[in-house]
Every structure is written in structure tokens, then in C-alpha cells.
Amino acid sequence: MEAVTTGGAHPLGGGAGDEAVRALPPPPAPAPALATGNAVELFLGQALHWRKPTDASVAQSLDGIAELASCGAWHAVAKLAERLLPTAHPELALALRQHRITALLRVRNYRAASDELAALGDLDAPALSYEAHAELYPGRHGTMVPFGLRVVQSQAPHFVNDSPRALNALLLLAARCADAAREHERERERAARAGAAGVPPPPPHLNSLALEANGAAARVALANLYIARREYQLAVSELEALAAFAPSVGGAAHEAGLPDGARGGERRPAPRAPSGATAPGSRTLDAPLSLVGRLHLQMGDLAAAEEAFGRLEATLASAETDAGARANRGLLAMGHGEYERASTEFDAALALEPNCCVAVNNRAVCELHLSHIGLAIAGLEDFVRADPVGHLDPTLVANLAAMYELHSDSAAAMRRTLERLVALVGADDFDVQLQPRASATVALPAA
């Protein structure tokens, strides 16, 4: 799903001029045209040793697929999953199908993904249950279908221009999750009244739908679809319901790996872990109330955005030392046109979480509005150079290319260098069109 920027519309272009004098080091001179030598290495100031793994260079297993996915090597994911399918047992085959279909969606091969889903048929068919393969899975009951595959199946029609069918499928999936959770709770109550020990499992045919996490995943998927349809208030409603369950937990980011554009620079090559997996600030940025606040900014309702951010901060031990909370304050200040204050908040966020792409990108937009385009460019370049693989975010790259157009006589050469860098280390679904974009935030996580 295409990323939606929700930090207030601050288009690149207007307000850019010569830098004002500040108590900061002077910005570097515009980079010269890179006509000779290795342009990418000249830009980075170092040799680029990392290379994207291939389907042949990783373990021939789900672990290998996970490594490829972490690097955005989606073409390789599709190839490896297909290679492993002929010898896979039924449960593994479904997991491989999910990875392959997800990869096809990531690289926008929507028709092929739809064909593969159609070949799977009814995901509730008895043949996809453990009971149908009792000799392989003795004692196991219920469906073998991963919940993520159900989400993928529900979302897929949107990518082939049938958004209403995707919406109906997701609404039905969310309703099934809610029904399963209610049925499980009724079973718990009946067991308690009867004095039975333990908690009974949900009915076998609901095993993959009974967890609350699945309900949260369905709500996030619905919110993503509503945003794609520009039905922002409906997206807010879904996220508010999710926030009532987990107001400060980035568990809203239950991933099925569908296309959703920029993720704020959280992609990392294996074996490095995503910063979002460990950094409290990154979790805060993905929390439902954080997303609610940014959607209100998208709609221009600053008071509602401030209220949502305030509710989120009330759940934190210390908002002052949380990078996500400081970044949200910066986005709100941008909405008010207070670019100096916003830049200060983004600086604070980066001091707490140096990998926060939301902060570095929006700080650059603030510098642009303050007529400090040299500082804006330098900040983005330094961020990319610090970790070319992990920090290569589509919105950041697009904004950097647009700033070169405003400031550099060698803009065309610099754009080509960025394109080469993307080709070397960017994910296969990286948006390489390098179009100017508004202020960037983390996209709503796909469910």
C-alpha cells in the first residue's frame, strides 16, 4: 500500500533561498558533478562493501527467505519460495505461498499474485486443515493457514482496482476475529463456572483467528485501505479502536509484508536488526495514537492531533526522553508553521534515536522553509552516508533529489548518483521516480 504522509503538507519549493546566518557550522559547498570515478563511492566518501543477498546466497529455508525479506530482496524471495515449494510439506507450503505472494505484491506484480491466490482457492477448505493430513500432524487440529495469508488474500483485490471487494473482505475478516475472541471468552466463562481447570482452546476452525493480535492486524489493514481510499476519518476510527486495546504499543505494526511505501528508514540488511524492533521511540511512532495524531494533521485538525499525541504521551514513562514523542511534537509544530521549534524537537528526537528517519527528513523540510537549504541537504546526505543501506528511505531520497534541483548546478549528476545507490542497495520495491514529496512520516504499518 502506498505510503501516506501525515505530518502536515509542507511541499518542497516555496521559501527556499540563501542561508541565513546561524550559530551553526557553515553548510558545505554544493557537490561537484560526478563525471569520473565511482560516483556512488565519491558521494558516500567510502567504499560500499555491502551487496544485496540473492536467492542462491542464503539458507534454502524459511530463514533464508526472512533474510532476503529483511533486505528488501523481493524478487529473490519469490524465486526461493517457488524453488522450495515442490518438496515442502503442506503447512510449510502455505507459509511459502504467503511469502511468494507477498513478494509479488511488493514488486507490483499484482496479476501474478492474484493468480496464485486464486489457485489456493477457499482458505477454509477442509483440505487445508491439520485433520486432513493426520499422518503428518498427529494430534493437531484446526486450520494450517497462516493468518497473514488471510490478510494478503483480503487486501489483494485493492491492487487490481477492486477496492470495494478488498474492503468487504477485510471487514468480514475483522468481524470473524471479533466473533472468535467473543466465543473464546464465553468458553472461558463457562469453564470458570463449571470449575474446569485451564482455558479451553477456541473451536478448531477458528484457531488462526482467535488471538486478539489477529484482530489488531485486521484493523491496521482496514486503516491502511481507508487511507488509500482517502477516507481518513474511517481510518482514525479503526486506529482509535486499536488504541483502546494498546495505546502505546507499536504492536499495531503486525506485518504481512504488503507494499506500503516508506517506513521511515526502518529497513536494515541482515543480520542487523531493524531499529524499530528495539528503539522505544520507533515503537512510539508506530503506536496507534501516534498514527491517529498524524492522520489528524493530514486532515488539518491540529487540535485533534495535539489531543491524540497528548494521550499517547500520558502512557509513556517520560515523553521528554522518547524519540517518537519528540518527533510527534515536531510534526505538530510544523503544522502550526513553527519551523524553528519543530527543528529543535527533531534534533532532540535524533539525539535520542539517531536512526529516526521521520525526524531527519522533517528537520530538512524545516530547514528548507527557514531558507537554510544547504543545511537541509547536508543533513540528509550525512544521514544516508552514516548507513547507506539502512537509511535509504524513498521519501528522503526524493526530497534530497528535489533539493539538488533547487540548489546545485550538478543536480542531474547528483540524481543519477542517487539512482545508482538505490540500484545497489535499495529494496526491490523502492520508488525510484525521485519525485518531490511533502513532509514525510512513517507509513501506517501493513497488517
From TrEMBL:
Signal peptide: none annotated. The keyword Transmembrane helix does not apply. The keyword Plastid does not apply. SMART domains: TPR. Residues 1-30, 184-203, 256-284 are annotated as: Disordered. TPR repeats lie at residues 323-356. Gene3D superfamilies: Tetratricopeptide repeat domain. This is Uncharacterized protein.
